[in-house]
Amino acid sequence: xxxxxxxxxxxxxxxxxxxxxxxxxxxxxxxxxxxxxxxxxxxxxxxxxxxxxxxxxxxxxxxxxxxxxxxxxxxxxxxxxxxxxxxxxxxxxxxxxxxxxxxxxxxxxxxxxxxxxxxxxxxxxxxxxxxxxxxxxxxxxxxxxxxxxxxxxxxxxxxxxxxxxxxxxxxxxxxxxxxxxxxxxxxxx
Length: 189
What we know:
The protein is α+β, with helices and mostly antiparallel strands. The chain has helices spanning 27-40, 132-145, 156-161, 163-170; strands at residues 5-6, 45-47, 57-61, 76-86, 91-97, 105-111, 113-119, 125-131, 180-181.
Protein backbone atom coordinates (compact mmCIF):
# COMPACT_ATOMS: atom_id res chain seq x y z
CA UNK A 1 0.00 0.00 0.00
CA UNK A 2 1.38 3.42 -0.96
CA UNK A 3 1.27 5.76 1.99
CA UNK A 4 1.12 9.50 1.27
CA UNK A 5 3.43 11.85 3.15
CA UNK A 6 1.47 14.50 5.07
CA UNK A 7 2.75 17.97 4.29
CA UNK A 8 3.49 21.00 6.44
CA UNK A 9 0.30 22.62 7.68
CA UNK A 10 -1.52 19.35 8.32
CA UNK A 11 -2.66 19.22 11.97
CA UNK A 12 -1.32 15.68 12.55
CA UNK A 13 2.23 17.05 12.28
CA UNK A 14 1.64 19.27 15.34
CA UNK A 15 0.20 16.63 17.67
CA UNK A 16 2.23 14.86 20.31
CA UNK A 17 2.22 11.20 19.29
CA UNK A 18 0.84 8.42 21.49
CA UNK A 19 2.97 5.49 22.72
CA UNK A 20 2.49 2.17 20.96
CA UNK A 21 1.18 -0.64 23.14
CA UNK A 22 2.99 -4.00 23.14
CA UNK A 23 0.17 -5.55 21.10
CA UNK A 24 -0.21 -2.84 18.44
CA UNK A 25 -2.10 -4.53 15.57
CA UNK A 26 -0.44 -4.70 12.14
CA UNK A 27 2.86 -3.17 13.29
CA UNK A 28 5.09 -5.17 10.94
CA UNK A 29 2.92 -4.34 7.91
CA UNK A 30 2.88 -0.66 8.87
CA UNK A 31 6.68 -0.67 9.23
CA UNK A 32 7.03 -2.29 5.79
CA UNK A 33 4.70 0.31 4.26
CA UNK A 34 6.58 3.16 5.98
CA UNK A 35 9.92 1.97 4.62
CA UNK A 36 8.36 1.74 1.14
CA UNK A 37 7.00 5.31 1.41
CA UNK A 38 10.37 6.56 2.68
CA UNK A 39 12.26 4.92 -0.17
CA UNK A 40 9.78 6.13 -2.79
CA UNK A 41 10.21 9.70 -1.59
CA UNK A 42 14.01 9.27 -1.32
CA UNK A 43 14.20 10.02 2.40
CA UNK A 44 16.44 8.54 5.08
CA UNK A 45 13.84 8.67 7.85
CA UNK A 46 10.09 8.79 8.28
CA UNK A 47 7.99 9.25 11.41
CA UNK A 48 4.44 7.93 11.74
CA UNK A 49 2.89 11.42 12.03
CA UNK A 50 4.25 12.08 8.54
CA UNK A 51 1.91 9.38 7.23
CA UNK A 52 -1.02 10.61 9.29
CA UNK A 53 -0.64 8.33 12.32
CA UNK A 54 -0.08 10.05 15.64
CA UNK A 55 1.92 7.19 17.16
CA UNK A 56 5.52 6.96 18.40
CA UNK A 57 7.02 5.04 15.49
CA UNK A 58 10.00 5.94 13.26
CA UNK A 59 11.80 4.14 10.44
CA UNK A 60 15.36 5.07 9.45
CA UNK A 61 17.73 3.88 6.77
CA UNK A 62 20.73 6.21 6.86
CA UNK A 63 22.90 4.13 4.51
CA UNK A 64 22.23 6.35 1.44
CA UNK A 65 24.21 9.20 3.08
CA UNK A 66 27.06 6.99 4.30
CA UNK A 67 29.54 8.27 1.73
CA UNK A 68 29.39 11.75 3.27
CA UNK A 69 28.70 10.53 6.83
CA UNK A 70 30.43 7.17 7.54
CA UNK A 71 28.61 6.70 10.86
CA UNK A 72 25.44 6.15 8.79
CA UNK A 73 26.80 3.10 6.92
CA UNK A 74 24.48 0.12 7.28
CA UNK A 75 22.29 1.91 9.85
CA UNK A 76 18.71 0.81 9.32
CA UNK A 77 16.29 0.58 12.19
CA UNK A 78 12.76 0.80 13.49
CA UNK A 79 12.21 2.94 16.58
CA UNK A 80 9.13 2.19 18.66
CA UNK A 81 8.53 4.58 21.58
CA UNK A 82 12.04 6.10 21.32
CA UNK A 83 13.53 8.19 24.13
CA UNK A 84 16.46 10.55 23.59
CA UNK A 85 18.89 11.78 26.23
CA UNK A 86 21.21 14.61 25.19
CA UNK A 87 24.86 13.75 25.93
CA UNK A 88 26.59 16.84 24.56
CA UNK A 89 25.09 20.30 24.88
CA UNK A 90 27.26 21.83 22.14
CA UNK A 91 25.17 22.35 19.01
CA UNK A 92 26.34 22.15 15.41
CA UNK A 93 24.36 23.66 12.53
CA UNK A 94 23.86 21.59 9.39
CA UNK A 95 21.42 21.73 6.51
CA UNK A 96 18.24 19.71 6.97
CA UNK A 97 15.29 19.03 4.76
CA UNK A 98 12.09 17.08 5.37
CA UNK A 99 9.70 15.03 3.27
CA UNK A 100 6.85 17.00 4.88
CA UNK A 101 8.43 20.32 3.84
CA UNK A 102 9.39 19.76 0.18
CA UNK A 103 11.69 22.38 -1.30
CA UNK A 104 12.71 23.78 2.09
CA UNK A 105 16.20 23.36 3.50
CA UNK A 106 17.68 25.24 6.44
CA UNK A 107 20.66 25.04 8.75
CA UNK A 108 19.44 23.60 12.04
CA UNK A 109 21.45 23.58 15.28
CA UNK A 110 21.45 20.18 17.01
CA UNK A 111 23.66 18.32 19.46
CA UNK A 112 26.05 15.75 18.03
CA UNK A 113 25.82 13.07 20.74
CA UNK A 114 22.73 11.37 22.13
CA UNK A 115 21.78 8.29 24.11
CA UNK A 116 18.82 6.53 22.49
CA UNK A 117 16.48 3.97 24.05
CA UNK A 118 13.83 2.26 21.91
CA UNK A 119 11.92 -0.89 21.14
CA UNK A 120 12.27 -2.60 17.77
CA UNK A 121 9.36 -3.95 15.68
CA UNK A 122 9.44 -7.14 17.80
CA UNK A 123 9.09 -4.97 20.93
CA UNK A 124 12.61 -5.88 22.06
CA UNK A 125 14.44 -3.12 23.99
CA UNK A 126 17.64 -1.48 22.74
CA UNK A 127 19.85 1.39 23.77
CA UNK A 128 22.86 2.99 22.16
CA UNK A 129 24.99 6.12 22.13
CA UNK A 130 24.74 7.72 18.69
CA UNK A 131 26.87 10.53 17.25
CA UNK A 132 27.30 12.70 14.22
CA UNK A 133 24.83 12.94 11.37
CA UNK A 134 23.05 9.78 12.49
CA UNK A 135 22.22 11.53 15.79
CA UNK A 136 20.81 14.42 13.73
CA UNK A 137 18.56 12.08 11.74
CA UNK A 138 17.26 10.45 14.92
CA UNK A 139 16.59 13.84 16.56
CA UNK A 140 14.84 15.15 13.43
CA UNK A 141 12.52 12.14 13.23
CA UNK A 142 11.84 12.06 16.96
CA UNK A 143 10.90 15.76 16.80
CA UNK A 144 7.95 14.68 14.64
CA UNK A 145 6.74 12.54 17.55
CA UNK A 146 6.64 15.68 19.69
CA UNK A 147 4.68 17.70 17.13
CA UNK A 148 7.73 19.61 15.92
CA UNK A 149 9.30 20.19 12.51
CA UNK A 150 12.85 21.33 11.79
CA UNK A 151 11.80 24.92 11.10
CA UNK A 152 10.86 25.18 14.79
CA UNK A 153 14.61 25.24 15.50
CA UNK A 154 15.56 28.12 13.21
CA UNK A 155 15.65 31.84 13.98
CA UNK A 156 12.65 34.13 13.58
CA UNK A 157 14.48 35.94 10.77
CA UNK A 158 15.04 32.70 8.83
CA UNK A 159 11.38 31.75 9.36
CA UNK A 160 10.34 35.08 7.93
CA UNK A 161 12.59 34.55 4.91
CA UNK A 162 11.02 31.16 4.11
CA UNK A 163 7.45 32.17 4.97
CA UNK A 164 6.37 32.17 1.33
CA UNK A 165 7.71 28.65 0.75
CA UNK A 166 5.89 27.40 3.82
CA UNK A 167 2.68 29.13 2.75
CA UNK A 168 2.99 27.53 -0.71
CA UNK A 169 3.13 24.10 0.95
CA UNK A 170 0.12 24.85 3.17
CA UNK A 171 -1.96 26.09 0.23
CA UNK A 172 -0.96 23.23 -2.06
CA UNK A 173 1.17 25.29 -4.45
CA UNK A 174 4.16 22.98 -4.39
CA UNK A 175 5.27 20.30 -6.84
CA UNK A 176 6.09 16.97 -5.24
CA UNK A 177 7.02 13.74 -7.04
CA UNK A 178 5.82 11.34 -4.33
CA UNK A 179 2.33 10.69 -2.93
CA UNK A 180 1.33 13.44 -0.48
CA UNK A 181 -1.59 14.63 1.59
CA UNK A 182 -2.04 18.38 1.87
CA UNK A 183 -3.45 20.22 4.87
CA UNK A 184 -7.28 20.15 4.89
CA UNK A 185 -7.42 23.90 4.08
CA UNK A 186 -5.05 23.66 1.11
CA UNK A 187 -6.26 25.15 -2.14
CA UNK A 188 -5.18 23.15 -5.15
CA UNK A 189 -3.42 24.85 -8.03
